[in-house]
Amino acid sequence: MLEFIEGNIHELTPATAVLATRGGVGYMLNISLPTYSALEGKTEALLYVHESIREDAWVLYGFAGRRERELFRSLIGVSGVGAATAIIILSSLQGDELAAVIAGGDVKRLKAIKGIGVKTAERIIVDLRDKIKSEAATLNLRTRSNSDAFDEAFAALTALGFDKKLSEKALDKLFGESPSITVEAAVRKALSMM
């Protein structure tokens, strides 16, 4: 499974990006408008990847940040929401705005997005409201800290096989007490806490 692709931006449109890797391979990734905006004017990029392997195609979706990829994965987990629809939703309502719409149960705002009907909007809210609210609480704690270091430490702990919730709780405490803690120190201290 691909986690990310890093390389030179060979082509960039509002819907796709082609990254040429150092190995001489070019990967075409479907992207949202926020990712396009993040890449515009740059020559190199690192995109977090979601891969969709079907009988007839192997499709890659690229995201400038992990949070956007997680929102995408949450959306495609809702019955009736495919990858193309999820990209449209992420392009229409970005990150925190989408989370606020879901947490607030704003069916009207979701329904205003092309391809989203009342039933799908309601299903998105019902399926994701609790998840979005708990993520928002975690994000509020994280904004005080170095979020890149937090993300790296979290990825290291989960790669080592530790429970996501326990890892997140330990890191929230550590980064809350010392926002400038290094990744290595955070992982070491979190290991002693679990």
Describe, in plain words, how this protein is organized in 3D.
By secondary structure, the protein is an alpha+beta fold. Helices cover 54% and strands 18% of the residues. A five-stranded antiparallel β-sheet has the order 3-2-1-4-5, sandwiched between helices. Helix 8 crosses helix 9 (183-193). The longest helix has 25 residues, at 118-142. The chain is globular and about 50 Å long.
Q: Widest sheet: strand order?
A: 3-2-1-4-5
Number of distinct helices: 9
Shape: globular
Hey, roughly how much beta strand do the residues contain? 15-25%
Q: What Rg is obtained from the alpha carbons, in whole angstroms? A: 18 Å
Number of strands: 5
| Helical amount | 40-55%
Question: Which runs of at least 5 residues are low in confidence (pLDDT < 50)?
Answer: 141-145
Question: Please, what is the average pLDDT?
Answer: 87
- Largest β-sheet summary: 5 strands, antiparallel
> Helix and strand succession?
EEEHEEHHHHHHHH
Structural class: alpha+beta
> What's the end-to-end separation, in Å?
28 Å
Q: Which structural traits does this protein have?
A:
alpha+beta, 194 residues, globular, five-stranded antiparallel beta sheet
